Queue: 2 jobs
Job 1
Amino acid sequence: GAVVSQHPSRVICKSGTSVKIECRSLDFQATTMFWYRQFPKQSLMLMATSNEGSKATYEQGVEKDKFLINHASLTLSTLTVTSAHPEDSSFYICSARRSYGTAYEQYFGPGTRLTVT
Amino acid sequence: DQQVKQNSPSLSVQEGRISILNCDYTNSMFDYFLWYKKYPAEGPTFLISISSIKDKNEDGRFTVFLNKSAKHLSLHIVPSQPGDSAVYFCAASPKTSYDKVIFGPGTSLSVIP
């Protein structure tokens, strides 16, 4: 159990366009989902925490108007990169935490490779 | 300012031997620690965790040791298998927010058959 999927796995878009990435918890409910970004040969950096039915909490330095997060249901969160630029090219990973129990482990999706040309 | 450090970028171990991955942290507010394993082009997979009230947690071939006074933890894999070859991330959460996970830079482990 605890499977998280992401779609698409890879996307190439032109500068100035918007891209939406979906994150789904397939076999459990997740009131909280997280969005990370990983630069080459670097660690995962938390971008924002997404709570179902409420506004996302963004980490310092992350532009909330550029990275729009929507957590419309207990199994789906979306990240929209608006007006993408080449510097937004990165590996974006989402994770989800179960809605029950005391475990704090996050279960990660496979990631989305975004390339902005 | 890196709050979670993994000073060895890479480690090679012979199959069947012990792999020891080290991690140091600087923030004394951290009190929940996790290890994740990551294959290329995939998301991290949770391996094992430990709360600051313990000094050891074991799960099969994986054991995590925590030395709070030294702000140091280690992951032991015994015996190491070729399938263990991956990048291992040490991560920590502060008691004020267990949802806030700070990752280390990772250690790439190669288990040689």
Job 2
Amino acid sequence: AQSVAQPEDQVNVAEGNPLTVKCTYSVSGNPYLFWYVQYPNRGLQFLLKYITGDNLVKGSYGFEAEFNKSQTSFHLKKPSALVSDSALYFCAVRFAAGNKLTFGGGTRVLVKP
Amino acid sequence: DGGITQSPKYLFRKEGQNVTLSCEQNLNHDAMYWYRQDPGQGLRLIYYSQIVNDFQKGDIAEGYSVSREKKESFPLTVTSAQKNPTAFYLCASSSTGTAGAYGYTFGSGTRLTVV
């Protein structure tokens, strides 16, 4: 069965420091991987996705993610975090055979000034 | 602009009442989904529909009902059988197909509170 895990409930980082949000997945085929961000009382907003090709994917707001097939990971990164990046981040995976996304449990990011 | 609209933004329900949450999309997406989110928690799938006039239960369907009479609309009814309905409800839509490369577009959510 497909699954996705975000091992950290919360990540704290100082403004200007690098930010990493971890995501790992379990699959028996080739996954399609997504990252979303949610601000308080709002819906989820799409950040980026990996479908195929270059393992380093660039997305919105300066975020990027690296697909690592051997480690079955898709960590979200930002070189220099902003206070405005404080939000809830969700990793999601979809497999070719189905249409539903499976979401991780979410990671709360707190960027301190 | 194309998008997905949820209404109302805030909804209050008395004990024992049924309430219906609206979700409308003009993205021409075949699939639509309803999620429940509790404070500080992840998303739990309530119902989903991949085509008009068809829908499937998700992980927490008890106490909820849906209909999909039109491609654009996927309303969710929270019935009196749902014992703890206070939560944030999110609707989403997506294209379908064998490529599997499509993500979801989310609405802005409805916060339901039992009073």
